[in-house]
Structures are given as structure tokens and as C-alpha cells.
Amino acid sequence: MESLDDAEKPMSQNPLLMTEPGWNTTKSREKAVEIAMEDWGCPAFYVGKSRVLAAFAAGKATALVVDVGASTMSVTPVTDGLVLKKGIQKSPFAGNFISSQIRLIFAQSTPPVPLVPHYMVKSKAPIDAGAPSQATFVKFDKPPAASFRRLEEERVLTEFKESIVRIWPGPGKFAQNEEAARAAPGQPFEMPDGWNNVFGAERYKAAEGLFDHKAALVDADNPAPKAEQTISAMINASLASVDVELRPHLLANIVVTGGSSLIYGFNDRLHRELEHMFPNPRIRVTAPSSISSDSSSDSEADADAQTSAPAAASSSAEPVSVADGEVRAVEVAGEEEAPVAKKAKKSRKISNAQHRTADAQEQPESPTDSATPAPARSSNQLEPDAEEAFQQFYLRQVTAEFAEDLDKIRAAGDFSDRALPVLVGALRQGTACFSAEERRRVGRAAVTAATVERGL
Hints:
Layout: H1 2-8, E1 16-20, H2 26-39, E2 45-49, H3 50-57, E3 63-68, E4 73-79, E5 82-83, E6 89-91, H4 95-108, E7 121-123, E8 136-137, H5 146-163, H6 178-183, E9 187-190, E10 196-199, H7 202-208, H8 231-240, H9 247-251, E11 254-257, H10 266-277, E12 285-286, H11 291-308, E13 320-321, E14 327-328, H12 339-361, H13 384-389, H14 391-397, H15 403-412, H16 420-429, H17 436-453
Parallel strand pairs: 1-2, 3-11, 11-12
Antiparallel strand pairs: 3-4, 4-5, 4-6, 7-8, 9-10, 13-14
Helix pairs in contact: 4-5, 4-7, 11-17, 12-14, 16-17
InterPro entries: Actin, ATPase_NBD, Rsa3_C
Protein name: Ribosome-assembly protein 3 C-terminal domain-containing protein
Family: Belongs to the actin family.
């Protein structure tokens, strides 16, 4: 009987994490917990909001998450890891809508584009573009069900969507620039039966309905989206339902996710639409493919901004607004610094003074002389971007008792987040002789850690 109980609870040794959309009901969540804990025997179970996790994956705790999947397109505001339910906007027009638009484009073409799934083709012969197919088809004793053919047709539509469909980059709507789109070079595509053609302006029509409801093709089975169901209108409605103070935060941290958002030109078009709607605030669109590049450029911009700011920031519980709409958090008043942090801060000030003295002594007498070598940096001094990046990071995380673990960390080549405070502390206080490569690795790791901490 015990073996039967084990078989009925296959996850008794495995904790489970499940994601849910922000609009999931309490009843559905309770049912999921019941199945996981009672039927599967999970020792631990957690339900996370999928849009919150998407924001975390982009290194942001506050973001406006635009999710364009297969059956649903949604806009979800996230603040400090919490979903603002009043700002959630969703629409059924997403990836499946694009597939239906491709079907209509094929059907309304002259002549109609044949949509033949792969399983029906036995062999095919090469033909000229636009010529009728010369394929040999498989003969079935019992034809597959209509649902199976529909599924296989969706595979062909997905291939077309991934390789041919483009988002009109702008400026302006596609309907206003159709002649310019026709003049652009087309792209060839071959069907499973060998039929092939070059698609020009047609490839911009399929997804234009996501941005312009008037551009959508309609029939009895495919109604047109409403004006409030376009991406830009949903973002506008979501921002209008949250506090005014949060809007610059959200516009500066837009995270785009979902498979249908990978269509070429999606992020550029979205950015242009939002710049037209919100000309004053700073707008930044982040997608999974551009997270690393966006973070690096934003880190450099923030480092430059911090350089021009006063060195000593006053304690405050309120965020400080920047001119471009970005808001940075400052230290909370009333929190007393720990003794270790005070000691580290004092040591850091002394070290900075020593570095400035050393740099002043190493300046060449004649800066205009091209033969004079450039002044060498102090052996314990980080590069300028790393200096600015870890100022706050160091005070919060570095400890004074790191000498015991330092040799083990360096011997293992460990530059992870766990070892970073020890390495940075040793580098700043000069308790170890670091090579140039080690200094560069610590500096790059500090920049990355500080960037993620600030939510950039």
C-alpha cells in the first residue's frame, strides 16, 4: 500500500513553482494548490506572476510588461515586484490573429496562394516564381481528420510568420505608406508543394492590425480589433489607470516578451508609437534579445549622471526625480549604519585620498609632449566606470572580515555575486596584490551587480 501511495504522489520529493497571469482568479489558484499539494504531494508550492518573473528576468523590479503571445496580448504594470491589477489590459488579438491574417492574405491574393501542409506532399519539382505547383501528393486510404490538417497548416503559417512577416517600421501607419512598401525589395518564400513567390508589401499587412485596427483584414470568422485593443491604446489605458508618479518609471522600463513580439521590427515600431504618444518622458523598450546591450549603455549613462552629482547624498525616504523622467531611490532616513559599514566607508575615503595623491604624483610634467607616456593608474584603483558603479554596492555588502576567504576565492577564480564583496573590499583596501586581469574582472563584475541592483 505504501508503494501505491508513492505512485499516486509522484512529486513528493520535488518543490514546484508555477506561473499564472495577473488576472487569474482566486478559485483557480486554490484548485492549483489543491492538486499540487494533495494529489501530487509537493512538499512546497509557489505560484508566481508570469509578468513579474518576466520583469525580473530583464533585471527590473518595476516595469511595464508587454506580453504578445499566441492567444493573448496583455499589458501589465509591475511595481516593486507587485502587479497593479487595476492597470492590466488584455486583448485576444496576438499571434493567432497574425496567423489568421496570413490566411486571409493567401485567400485574397490573385491567384490564391495554395496552403498545402507538409504531410500531403510526396515529391515536388522546382518551378518559377508564381507558377503552379508540380508536386506529387500522398494518397491516403483514410484521410486524416480536418483538425489534423488544420494543425499542419498552422505549422506552415508559423514558418511564414517567422521568416517573412515584418512590422512596418514607420514613421506613420502602413496604410499611409503602402506605395513605399511596394517599392522596397521583397523576400521569397516556398510552400511545401514547391510553389514559391516573392512577397513585398504583403508581409507588412499581416501584423499591422496589432498597431492599426483599420488595417486588419476581416471576414465572417475573423472580426476586426477595436481601437482600444491595439498595443499603443492598451499601453495608454494601462498608464492612465496608475498613479501619475509611476508613469515615468513604467515608460522608462518597458519589457517586451512573448513569442509574437519576436517579429522583425516590433520593438522599433513600438518605440516610435510611444514616442509619438508621450513626447516628454524618457521611453526605453527592453526585449530579451537586447537586455545585455541596453543594460550596458544605461549603466554608462547613469555613471556619467552620478559623476556630476554631489558626492555626499542626503538621506531621504522619497525618490529623487531626474530631468529625463527616471527616478532613483536614495537611502532611507533613520537607518543607522552598521559598524562594519562605517569602518568600510572610512577606509574607502582614506583609500580614495591615497589614490588621488598617487595619481597627482604620477602626472607627467609636460602633458603636451607626445613622447611622454600616459600616467599610470594606481595599482589598487578601479577603472572610472567601476569606481562609480560600486559606490553604494560596496557600502551595503562589503565586510571587514574577508581575509580568511580571500585566498580560497582567488584560487578558485570565483567572481560570482557571492564572492564579489570580498574581492571588491580587498581591492579597495589594498590588502591583496591583484593582477591587472583580476582588477578588470572585479570591475566588470561590480558594474554588472550594481546595474542589476538599480533595476536598469
